[in-house]
Design brief:
CATH superfamily of the largest domain in chain A: FAD/NAD(P)-binding domain
Distance between the termini of chain A: 60 Å
Oligomer: homodimer
Radius of gyration of chain A: 23 Å
Shape of chain A: globular
Chain lengths: ~450, ~450
């Protein structure tokens, strides 16, 4: 390959691919075009910056542009926007500082990420109304809170960002209300886990408005209220976190195919319908290990892993990107909530399963050992095959135990196998039967009925 | 089956089998003969009783004799010792209060457990020299410490019991020395994990005497010193924890076969060479999921699980006992250390593997998130097949992450599969690449060399 490996977008997928490709093949020219100035930053850390748990926004940067350039020999060009791709000619057109040039590529990776969805709310442009997707937005929220000392905050959307920002803003002494259109928060976690989180949010003083559609925001220069159909709720600052949409326009205009989720379709190597064009991260699909279907999981590990695999492939060693189990974990004040696989019964039925589920509460340590707390575990399996489909857990400690089920999903384990896992036990760490095993025992009993 | 299900031994395996058999088939008569008075107690909790973290020894009892008798309808007879088994006639001979009677059985479970190994040390019978295997011994240690207020303690053996008792006695204000014949403590955890634990033990003021053979104990009525080959170390109390031996004499005398480990040989249903005679728990073998060979893992989960499966089988629904991965976890002051599978390279070679291993240190959370600590992960795989063979981890938090590898062992995953697991990430819980994934990445690289 004489022409360089060109990467569009300098975040998790792109920079992982760049670093890995250079490490595997130092002779390969690797160019990254990033339209902004930040690269390789931990977007997931931004709520903790607003909360005050992370001092400096720069702390969220894993590797600096200088390190990429000098230590990893990556030709990283910030402030460079790729405005079109010609996959037949194998070139991209780049704009920087008003100039425009064509860059040929041998292989290309699209890592354009996703953006915050912005519903057509009235007053979205008022001061104090934010989404939280970029480092600049995190900075702007922090500055706004410092300058205006809001007494009340409205969070639109009860997903990860909503729950994390509720904690962050409460910690800053602000009264927080969450507005969610659905009957529950944290929809992908299932209703049992959500209920535990919601009770805890209320205990922490967060006001929950479920099944509540926001119409828009009212105020003068700055936001003052959230407008509902027949009510108006005061709010000195607003965070809108109602999901993300993959940035696929550049790819779609170039004839690169999108998949059923609306993100860029890829094969097991992260390849698009053009052989030398890869896509990874929040703009691309990944294969769900439970359903075998394309899925859109805009989370950091999926992006990092796919980027790294594609870097290896482009460097000459074809490497699958790996599937996704849709594993996720979120902190909500003193609780951890986690999920993996297929939990929603309707979704399970759509892909041909007959879901059976149980929800149990089990202690994280034996009753006699100090500090035991309850973990609520929801476990889902297919009735006929007994295959484990997914799980959700929530509690004051132990949410990472979801990893046991995530591993079981990758390995297609059935419930009797899950139940017989030899997991670690000692009183300071777990009861004899880990809560995951207890859930598997109860579910095995239900499957026999 | 007209004759009852007779169970010899009322601890984890026996009482799990009794409870489950009655639950599955309430018409079945279930008799448990226990020679002592304690049943169904958490032996693993005893060090925490001595430490003072558990107030009452009775707190360690999971289910009381009355509950077994009244709520679970189990005919539990404490103070009854089975002195012989006649597997041809299908009877056991029982002694109680000097009386002796024969009890016919339809099916029988041997759950006689294990006992502390007692090397022929001089002075083993001195006051203040203890092993820690039974509730009565835990009580006696506690009483001795209260009455004699020892200034110094010697622990012979650097295994689980030794490390846990070092913490417990240090917490009671006693200067602790550990004497271990091998060059390391916690032998089954591998030397990398042991080294981290040993540094921490020393930091906590524990004196370690490795590669040191104890000859015996000296004193008057009470122990005053540990005698080494050419030294004598003062000790006001001594705990000997040099391993356990399965209680197999009763079975062996009856012609029930022992396996290569010296424990009772069983098939996948926990059956011995006699069709109606089962064995489970610390007296029995289990199949190692990595080697496929019989193994002797005297730990609580193995016992509980096998007992439960045998109870189900005897009640009419044949159920495999499940294999063991040899998973274990231990607290050493502020550290947690855990292990699973095959770690020792010599042991791996003995069963035909060509082991390759890496040891890495990785943070339990991103660098920017408060409270991150390092987890040291040792991961072992077979060179040719790339199959994961075992792992060991140690750190101030996150030792339960061993469960991910334990699950991978049960599922025969190879390193590239382990590396591609979709584990849970968010800054309060994990870095993007969980330490287990980081170890897998590094090991995958080494396997390619």
């Amino acid at each position: 390959m004489d022409d360089p490996f060109v990467i569009v977008g300098g975040d998790a997928a792109g920079m992982s691919a760049a670093s890995k490709a250079k490490r595997e093949n130092p002779d390969l020219d690797v160019i990254v075009f990033e339209k902004g100035e930040w690269v390789s930053y931990a977007a997931c850390g931004m709520p903790y910056y607003v909360k005050g748990a992370v001092d400096d926004l720069e702390d969220l940067v894993a590797v600096t542009p200088e390190e990429f350039r000098e230590e990893r020999d990556v030709d990283l060009r910030t402030g460079h926007e790729v405005v079109s791709i010609d996959p037949e000619a194998k070139t991209v057109t780049v704009e920087t500082d008003g100039d425009r040039f064509d860059q040929p590529y041998g292989a290309m990776l699209i890592g354009t990420g996703a953006r915050a969805v912005e519903p057509p709310f009235d007053g979205f442009d008022l001061g104090g109304v934010f989404t939280l997707r970029s480092m600049d937005e995190a900075d702007a929220i922090e500055d706004y809170v410092d300058a205006h000392e809001p007494a009340s905050a409205a969070i639109v959307g009860g997903g990860y960002v909503g729950v994390e920002m509720a904690e962050a803003l409460t910690e800053r002494g602000i009264d927080v209300s969450i507005f969610e259109m659905l009957p529950q928060t944290l929809q992908p976690f299932g209703k049992e886990t959500a209920r535990v989180v919601e009770d805890h949010l209320r205990d922490q003083g967060v006001e929950l408005h479920l099944e509540t559609a926001v119409q828009g925001f009212a105020g003068g220069e700055h936001v003052e209220a959230v407008e509902l159909e027949d009510d108006s709720v005061p709010a000195d600052v607003v965070i809108v976190g109602v999901g993300v949409a993959p940035n696929v326009e550049l790819a779609a205009e170039a004839g690169i195919e999108l998949g059923p989720t609306g993100a860029i379709a890829t094969d097991e190597y992260g390849r698009t319908n053009y052989d030398d064009v890869y896509a990874a991260g929040d703009c691309a699909e990944a294969t769900n290990v439970v359903t075998g279907e394309p899925d859109h999981v805009p989370l950091a590990l999926t992006a990092n892993r796919a980027g790294r695999a594609i870097g290896t492939t482009v460097a000459g060693d074809p490497t699958p990107t790996g599937g996704t189990a849709g594993t996720a974990i979120v902190k909500a004040f003193d609780l951890g909530a986690a999920r993996t696989g297929v939990i929603d019964p309707d979704l399970a039925r759509e892909v041909g399963f007959d879901p059976v589920s149980v929800t149990i509460e089990a202690p994280t340590r034996p009753h006699y050992y100090p500090g035991a707390t309850d973990l609520t575990v929801t476990l889902v399996a297919d009735r006929e095959s007994e295959r484990v489909l997914g799980a959700s857990v929530v509690g004051r400690e132990g949410a990472k135990r979801i990893d046991t089920v995530a591993t079981a999903l990758h390995a297609d384990l059935i419930v009797p196998e899950l139940q017989n896992l030899d997991l670690a036990y000692a009183p300071p760490f777990s009861p004899v039967w880990d809560p995951i095993l207890t859930a598997a025992k109860v579910l095995a009993g239900k499957l026999e009925d």
